[in-house]
Fold each of these.
Amino acid sequence: MIESIKSSPLYPIANPKSIAIFGASNNATSMGTGLLGSLLGLGFEGEIYPIHPKEDRVLNIEAYRSVLDLPKVPDLALIVLPTRVVSEAMDACGRKGIKHAIVISGGFKEVGGDGVSLERDLVAAANKYGIRFLGPNCIGVANPGYKVNTTFMVFEGAPGFIGMASQSGSFVTQMFSYLSCYAIGFSTAFSVGNEANIDIVDCMEYLGACPDTKVIALYIEGIRRGRAFVEMARSIVPKKPIVAFYIGGSETGSRAGLSHTGAMAGPDKLYEGIFRQGGIIRARSMTELFDLCWMLGSFPRITGRRVMIQTHSGGPGAEAADACGRAGLELPSLSPETIKRLSPFVPHTGSISNPLDFTFGRNITDYYWEIPKVLLEEKNADVLLYYFSMSGGTIERTIRQLGIPPDQIAEKAAEMVNVQSNSIIRLLETHDKPFVGYTFLSLKDQLVRKLVERGIPIFPGPQRAARAIEAAYQYTCLRDKILASVFQEKAASR
Amino acid sequence: MRADDLIQSGLNRGQKALSEYESKKLLSLYGIPVTREKLSRSADEAVSAADGLGFPVALKACSAELMHKSERGGIELNIRSEGDVRRAYERIIRSVDLQLEGVLVQEMVPGQRELVVGLSRDTQFGPCVMLGMGGIMTEVFQDTVFRMAPFDMIEAKDMTEELRFKAILGAFRGQKPVDMEILCRTLIAVGQIGLELETVSELDINPLIITPEGRLVAVDALVILKRNPK
């Protein structure tokens, strides 16, 4: 475990001051040109040196015939060339004195046949000069805070707190837009490709030390350095959570163990245990992977699994209660003190219990301040799960019916949304207890959008919220387990 | 006898596995509780072994080549008299058409709660320990959890908590909870076998019975050998 990302071989790869790019041209449809476009599009502030055998300028940047002609040694080489010439380019980089590279090109080990020996040549060329590289067969890195995006897709959204290492490039580059819907994003995301030199364990080490990363997301199809993987995870988890989505393949059937144990040691079961041993939370889909990252990055410390639910409607309350039960969460009863404090705010049509059902109160602001305040202070609960239902359109209709002139409706509605969102934000700022929302509204709807952008996780539907809360509690338990082990080991060695 | 010697002599005889008797000797060397048992080579020896152990006893055909005893008429359970021991001995000798190491005479261990503990090797993760619901329903329940060796008592305890049917480890229908300390030590010991003995490729303890008093006893065991460890 490193103290600073600067000690990682990935530091110059994710934070280069200058980049030489092989494979970009003035041909708009080539992959290399696309990558250069992504890099320029995000406004990369360092120097870029296109290497091209014929062109003098590439996308209006001065190009060089050979990497050896460059006026300085760039921090990083980005190689997007035909497979057979990649080793040669790597060798030239080595002669120039370049120490870090990303090989985007495919056609290596992953295709078998000649690809295997081509990859061997590539590794040998890099090793000859001590070059550390990501790939081949990857899409590189996105570090939006530093305005680096070597991937084919245009970066959308904003930098966030999710550090990702992925064995699929698509799950980096094609997730930008998806994450921005939830107002979350990558701190740094690596596509590891064939892991010929730098592997996913190295990426975990970097992300573990990365100050912008609050939670680590992994997409895994197979781990090579198994034992190092578990040790690395256990060294990171006391500091930040790790969530993994693993697709196991189907080698189970081909196992021919003589023992029961051998027959049952299929990869899925094995990884299940390995993740738990490493303190890693396992997600069952990409959607869930990012849901859990959203929750854990927002609320890394949850004290228990007792959930208080606030709704103003029977059905969504019942569904949330059911979802919590199925996710292994508990719904505590309200303390007498809470019941007493709530009674002025909840009308006789409602229900002061858990889920708390507000129905339709006289004063709508109670729903956004008084009631959640009391519930956040309920000592029997560890988390508040809160239902959002009021759409922007309904707010505007209400205002119109109050007789406000049409030209002022939009302004008044925005004002009301502000009052409600500020109430909730103020509650969050004054209470430590996690506040998690669920809704069936579009996450673009005014109030919900404001809160999501403020960093409050509001999940589409209660099942996703309940699963996220359960995962946060699981993290607390896994972290405690590893810390207890570390403590015991220290005590024993004393 | 040391564990290395036990395995080496098996390998020298060309065995692919250790017999039940040898397998349990190996487990004993690692502190794993096993059935009290004696290997007998005649009906008379079987009778005196049974007298020594106390009735009831079980008789089992014992051979390194016999990995699935029950399917070949190699097991007789709950034998309560000397006459029955003789008859069981003869039946086993007749029905198993293999060169036997002998017939194992073994204490009958009471208890309906059966676990399986095992060792497998993974190319990436190395020796891995399995804990699960054991007995004949192992493959039906598919309730198994794995850990990479080595691990500590805290991790071993966490394994038990990951089982779906973990309730049977607690107080259960008038039976005492399992001795958790011994269970965790057994899991750790199996991992140690994997780390220390490269010639052991796989291992099964099935069933590992939890007695009504909560004691653990390895009732059957199988150690698969690897001829040329790297």
Amino acid sequence: MNNKHQDDIEHIRSMMERSSRFISLSGMSGVIAGIVALIAALVSYYLIKNNGGEYFGNKHIILSAPLLTKLVITLVITLIVALFFGIYFTIQKSKRNHQKVWNSLSKRLLISLFIPLAAGGIFCIALFFQGHFGLVAPVMLIFYGLALMNASKYTFNDVEYLGYFELILGLISLFLVGYGLIFWAIGFGVLHIIYGIMMQKKYH
Amino acid sequence: MSLIQSLNKEFESRIRLGIMSILMVNEWVEFKEMKETLDITDGNLASHIAGLEKNDYIEVKKEFVGKKPKTSYRATKTGRKAFNQHLNSLEKLINRK
């Protein structure tokens, strides 16, 4: 009899979990996103360097219009590739979990992620147009961190901690303008890879 | 009243436990979504829902999204209270060992 009660409690716990958290986020998406981000950071670094600019340091550098275009294209490609693999691995994992990819949970997760992210994106575009290029990387990190913290209530708690790290990194880099690319590479590259590997180990 | 008797008979079935668990942590849940989470058939879910509804543990909302009918459920105050009591009894039974 006692076993039945124990199982009942287990069942209740699992149903509450399954119905309130989207558990099909894959660690692999994190690893791939991290690698893609590191490549993008390297590409950006060389783009700037070949243009005669020295990225690091507080020196004021002039970014020409064609260079800016190239940097933005790099960023957009990075985003598309990372998103593509993220979606791909999530679909794979949700098949294994027998959880639908597109349900009210994943919708809520995406909405709570994208509202802070969209605000951050618009903020970055504004900074860009006003010539505050040095602040773009810190602001991306800060809003991304806040977005993760916001979305974490619909998925693994670990996402919240990743959010804290991104936020702290962004706040620090606000005061080290000129080193934004390094912080960006750590935040979107290294942290994603570490997070991905940890998730893969923990939930696989 | 002994502890075993304090367990709510209405929650004896796994499916009813599942339905109530889902409704404890979500506001309105749609029929289709509930069915997928519990991984059971339409008829099976419908009969258990009818049982819970009869006891006034859950309430039903029917609406149309475009031309499609949509049925959603929510735990009532009575339902939440009954479920919490059931959980407490379960816990006590396990801890008594």
